[in-house]
Structures are given as C-alpha cells and as structure tokens.
Amino acid sequence: MLKKKSNILLIYTGGTIGMIKDSDTGALRSFDFNNLLTRIPELKILDCDITTISFENPIDSSNMNPKYWVQIAEIIEENYINFDGFVVLHGSDTMSYTASALSFMLEHLSKPVILTGSQLPIGDLRTDAKENLITSIQIAALKQNNTSVIKEVGLYFEYKLYRGNRTTKINAEHFEAFESLNYPHLVESGVHLKVNKKQLLQANHSNSLIVRKNLCTDIVLIKLFPGITELVLKTILSVPDLKGVILETYGAGNCTTEQWFINLISNAIKKGIVIINVTQCSGGSVIMGQYETSTALKKAGVISGHDITTEAAIVKLMYLLGQNINPKEFKTIFETPLRGELTQN
Fold it and tell me: Is 315 within 8 Å of 100 (Cβ atoms)?
C-alpha cells in the first residue's frame, strides 16, 4: 500500500510563537503566516503538505474565551474532511484551557489536534518556537497503515506531547512550561519520536465528528484558603444565575468542618447549583470520605473531580451544563472520563 502524504492545517490564534522582533525598535509584532516557509525553511523537509490559516485579528492568550474556542472548533469542523491533522498555535498562558475545551467540543474526534506555542518569539536567537512547531507538525502527520496515530487533542511543548486535558502550565520562565502530573505523556521527542501507544485514546471511526458549541459560562472557581469568611462564600454563592462551582479544596478534597461552610454548600446544591470538588495540589486525586474533613461534602452531594485538573474541570462543567443534562445524571456523567480527562478512583 502506498503511503499517503499527510495534509496538515496550521491554525494561528496568536501568542508568542507567532511574533518576531522588529530589528529597529525591538518591539514584538505578528508575522505573516503565509510566509511561514521563509521563516522556517526546515518545514520543507517534512513529509507532509502544510496549509496555514490565521485569526483575522490574532489575540493574546490572556484574552482567550469560549467565543474563540468555538471559532477554532469551527475551523477544524469546516476543514475536517480535507486534512489529516491540525496544529493550533496558541499563547501558553491559557493553552491548557483551550486544549481541554477542544477535547470536549470535538466529539468522536479521530484525527490529531495538537496545540503548541513557545516561551520565546519565533525570530529570537534562542527560541523554542521552531522545535515546538516542527515536532508538532511531525506528530500530527504520524500515520500507521494510512491512519493517524494520534486521534485526540494533545499539547506539545519541550520534547513531550501530553493529553491536552491533563495539562497545567507550571512555569512562566522555563522552556518546560507544562506538565501532566496525573497521566503519562503520549509522545517523547528525541532522536526518534517515541509513541506511548498504550496511553493513547482510541477513536471509533464509525462515528462522524460532532462539534459541541454550547458552553455555559455561569460558573465560578472558588479556591479555599485558611480564613475564608462566611460573607465571602455566601456572596459568591448568591451570584444571580450561578449554575456551577469548581471548589478547589485542600489535599485529597478536604475542607473546613465549620457548620456555616457546610450549610452554605448544602443549600447551594439544594438550589440546583452543581459543585465540583478538585484538589489545589498540582498532582494527586480527590478522595471524598477518606478524611472526616471531606465526609460532609460527600453527604451534601458535592461531585468528585477525582484527579482532573482545574482547567479541565472548568471546561467540562461548561460543556456539560451546556448540554442540559438531567440533574440526576449529572454527577455520574461528570465523574466518568469522557475524553480521558480523569481517572476514576
């Protein structure tokens, strides 16, 4: 069987990776991605065809929001049949949120969607942008028996491809900016690309891609800290039209046992507000009921996020609230891995 050359669509949304430094002023500006091969001639060596598309007005990733997630998803949807893989260039600050969002929005995905970026601009002498971009394209183009090897949303940074919805940005200065503490990396780049096949999501090729665009943003993130007051928590839980809360607790899902705290949480749940328990720790899992300090939350009906990241929990909550799921089924569905985003205890 003849090996079919991969067609890769490169989508530029903004971020440091698409910047070059003006030699006269030193200011950073976006460069024209139509001239990508001029900037990175090494791309000509890759065994794939690359097409580029850019946001009309590229954004800093700090301005990323669900409207832009839908825009990225629609670009993939419109070009899904004609391309074998997609590489999304994105600012690193909110990349884990976008990777998580796309993983839920792109249902029945059977092609690679790889997000990448850089800590230094593409024109910088010591940039990490070239390696991240070139290897992301290589990974997106990987095929076995004319079928894509990667069939999920990944995030590539500094020699490793991670499952996108398992990542967190851990460093604002080092090239090793991301980590996936609760799930092994999918691919490691060295002299060769080493694929950890056992860790990959398996796609059902009989199902067509469905793009879920309805995301509910009537949610809030509450991070517990010693000294949080009743008034603060009561005010937050009284926000009009609030539908969901991500509660960042201590350790394995623990919280204060003060009665006012438990009462506020219980009353919010009785009003129909969904509350998800995730840990503040970078790694590890929520295990409600393991300690007395989490038993009350379990009894109140708080949902366990298990080992999900805060980023993935926020987007999964937006996604599920947007699907108008029966409240009786919500807990079961949230605690079930939909895109490999969590491990059930």
Answer: yes
Distance, in Å, from the CA atom of 155 to the CA atom of 163, rounded to the nearest integer, reads 6
Q: What is the pLDDT of residues 242-299, one digit of tens each?
A: 999 999 999 999 999 999 999 999 999 999 999 999 999 999 999 988 877 789 999 9
Per-domain boundaries in the chain: 6-211, 219-334
Q: Which two tokens mark 122?
A: 């593409």
Is 219-334 a domain of CATH 3.40.50.10190?
no
Q: Between 1.20.120.450, 1.10.10.10, 2.40.160.20, 3.40.50.1170, what CATH number should domain 6-211 receive?
A: 3.40.50.1170
Give dist(CA 116, CA 178) in Å, integer.
11
Catalytic residue among 13, 16, 94, 309: 16
pTM, two decimal places: 0.94
Whether 229 is catalytic is no
